[in-house]
Write a structure and sequence with these properties.
The protein has about 200 residues and is α+β, with helices and mostly antiparallel strands. The chain is built from 2 helices and 12 strands; from the N terminus they run αββββββββββββα.
C-alpha cells in the first residue's frame, strides 16, 4: 500500500558526513572525518565501519543501544574514535592522525542497523592532503608583504612631512624678507636715520 511505503521511508536509516563531502588536511597533521546517523525507530546491536577507498577497513565498531557508547572491534593504529551516541547526535566520527600524502582519497562511513531489518546506509567523504611548508611559505609571504607595505607607508609619510615643513619654513622666511625690505623703503622715503636726506656731504678739501 502507498501509505505503508511512505511510512517505511520515514523510518529509514540515514548516514551523513555534513554539509560538504570534502576535507583538506596539512601533511603530518591530524584530520577529523565527520559522520553521524539518524533513525526514527532507534537501534540495537548497530554496526558501523569506516573504509578507505572502498577496500581497506580502518575502523570497525558496534553499539548495543542508545544507552551505551560504541565499543571497538578493530581499527587502524592511526585512527581514533571521537564520537558519541548517548547524547543528542549519533556521532561516529573519527580522527586520522599524522596524515600522509598516501592517505588522500575516499573515506566511506557505513552503518547497519539490525533493528530496521538490517537496513544499511553509507556516506562518503573525500580527503585532500597538501604540503605543509607551502602553506607556511604563503602565510610568511603575506605577513612580509603587509609589514613591508606598512613600513613603506611610514617612510612615505615621514618624507611628505619633511617636505611640507620645508615648504612652510621657506614661506615664512620669504615673508620675513618682505617685511624687512618694506621697512627699509619706508625709512628712506620719510628721511629718517639711515636715509639719503640726512647723509652729510663729503668734507671739502
Amino acid at each position: 500500500l502507498p501509505g505503508l511505503h511512505v511510512f517505511a521511508i520515514a523510518f529509514a536509516l540515514e548516514v551523513s558526513v555534513g554539509k560538504t563531502n570534502t576535507v583538506m588536511a596539512l601533511n603530518n597533521s591530524n584530520v577529523l572525518l565527520p559522520c553521524t546517523f539518524t533513525t526514527c525507530i532507534g537501534f540495537q546491536d548497530l554496526v558501523f565501519t569506516w573504509h578507505f577507498n572502498s577496500t581497506e577497513m580502518i575502523y570497525h565498531g558496534k553499539i548495543k543501544s542508545k544507552a551505551s557508547e560504541p565499543f571497538l572491534v578493530g581499527r587502524n593504529p592511526r585512527v581514533e574514535f571521537v564520537g558519541s551516541t548517548t547524547g543528542k547526535d549519533n556521532n561516529i566520527s573519527i580522527v586520522l592522525k599524522n596524515v600522509e600524502f598516501s592517505d588522500a582519497g575516499k573515506y566511506t562511513c557505513h552503518v547497519r542497523n539490525p533493528k530496521e531489518k538490517n537496513a544499511e546506509h553509507n556516506a562518503t567523504i573525500f580527503l585532500t592532503v597538501v604540503q605543509k611548508s607551502k602553506c607556511y611559505n604563503t602565510v610568511t609571504l603575506i605577513i612580509v608583504g603587509v609589514v613591508g607595505g606598512l613600513i613603506g607607508l611610514l617612510i612615505l609619510f615621514m618624507l611628505v612631512k619633511r617636505v611640507v615643513l620645508f615648504i612652510i619654513k621657506k614661506t615664512q622666511d620669504g615673508k620675513k624678507e618682505c617685511l624687512v625690505s618694506s621697512s627699509g623703503n619706508d625709512n628712506t622715503e620719510n628721511g629718517l636715520a639711515g636715509s639719503k636726506a640726512e647723509q652729510k656731504a663729503p668734507p671739502k678739501a
